[in-house]
C-alpha cells in the first residue's frame, strides 16, 4: 500500500469515516489535485469580494438608478460619464485629491528617506528611536484624525495655545479654506512617514557594503556617495514605496471625513468622498459608480506615466 493510502486510511479511521466512503472520496478528490483544492476558498473569496463587485459596479455606471426616489433602473449609456466631465464639483475634488497626493507623498519620501539614512548608522538608542518612529503608523486613521482634530482646535487646541504663548497669530487650521487641506496633509505625513521610513531603512540595510567602501577609498564625499552609490542602488525600492503610498493616498477618505467632512465648503473633499456622497447619501448609484471608475482609470494612467518618468536602477547607473 502506498504511503498516501496508509495516511488516508488511518486518517479516515480516526475521523470515523467508513472505508467504502473513504474510497469514494479518494476517487473523487485524488491526492495529486490537493494543491488545487486548497486554492478554492481563496478563489471564491476573490470572486465574491473583488471581481463581482467590480463588474457589477461597472454595469451600474451605465444605468440611472435613483434609490431614494424609488425609480426603476433605466439604461443611460454614457450619460453618467458625460455628466461627470461637466460636473464642476468633481473637478474640484479631483484637484484636491491630486494636491493632497503630490504634497503628502513628496514630504513623506523626503522625511522618511532622511530618517532612514540617519538611523542606518550605529547610534546609541537607535532601537528606541525606531520603535517611537513607527508608533504613528500603528494608529488607525480615524483615531489619528480625531487626535489631530483636537490638536488643531482653534480655542482649546494645544497648537494654538503654544502659538499664543509665543505671541504669534492664532491659525484657524480646519475652519479656513486656505489652511484646511494643508492641515490634513500634515496629519497624513505624520502617520505615514514611518511606512516610508521602514521600507527604505530595510532597503538600505540590505545593500552590500563593498561599493560604499570603494567609494570612500576613492575619496568620494558623503553627498557624492548618496547620489552616485546609494540612490542608484535603492532606486527600485524607492519607486515601489512611492507607488504603494500613491495607491493608498488616492483613495483617502477616513482622515478627511473625521477632520473636516470635506469642508469648509468642498475645499478638502476628495474624489472618493464625493463618490460616497453621490452613491450612498444622494443614492444616485449609477453616477457614483461612474465617478469611482473614472477615478480608477485616471489613477491607472497616472501610475503608467509615473513609472515611465521615474528612472529605473539601470537608467540611474
Give your account of this protein's structure.
This protein has 317 residues and is mainly alpha-helical. It folds into two domains: 20-75, no CATH class; 81-309, MetI-like fold, CATH 1.10.3720.10. Helices cover 72% and strands 1% of the residues. It contains 16 helices and two strands. The chain has helices spanning 3-15, 19-28, 34-37, 40-60, 79-85, 88-118, 126-138, 141-151, 158-165, 180-205, 210-217, 222-250, 254-259, 271-281, 285-309, 313-316; strands at 63-64, 74-75. Strands 1-2 form a two-stranded antiparallel sheet. Helix 10 packs across helix 12 (222-250). The radius of gyration is 27 Å and the shape is globular. It starts with a helix and ends with a helix. Mean pLDDT is 82; it is low at 1-8 and 11-15.
Task: List strands and helices in order, with pairings.
Elements: H1 3-15, H2 19-28, H3 34-37, H4 40-60, E1 63-64, E2 74-75, H5 79-85, H6 88-118, H7 126-138, H8 141-151, H9 158-165, H10 180-205, H11 210-217, H12 222-250, H13 254-259, H14 271-281, H15 285-309, H16 313-316
Antiparallel strand pairs: 1-2
Question: For this structure, what is the CATH class of the largest domain?
Answer: Mainly Alpha
**Helix coverage percent of residues?**
over 70%
Which overall shape is indicated by the principal axes computed on the Cα atoms? globular
Order of helices and strands: HHHHEEHHHHHHHHHHHH
The domain tally reads 2
Beta percentage is under 5%
Radius of gyration (CA) equals 27 Å
CATH architecture of the largest domain: Orthogonal Bundle
CATH fold-level label of the largest domain: MetI-like fold
Number of helices: 16
End-to-end separation in angstroms reads 60 Å
Spans with pLDDT under 50 lasting ≥5 residues? 1-8, 11-15
Structural class: mainly alpha
Query: What is the averaged pLDDT score?
Result: 82
Major sheet: arrangement of strands: 1-2
- Please identify which CATH superfamily of the largest domain we are dealing with: MetI-like
The main pleated sheet reads as: 2 strands, antiparallel
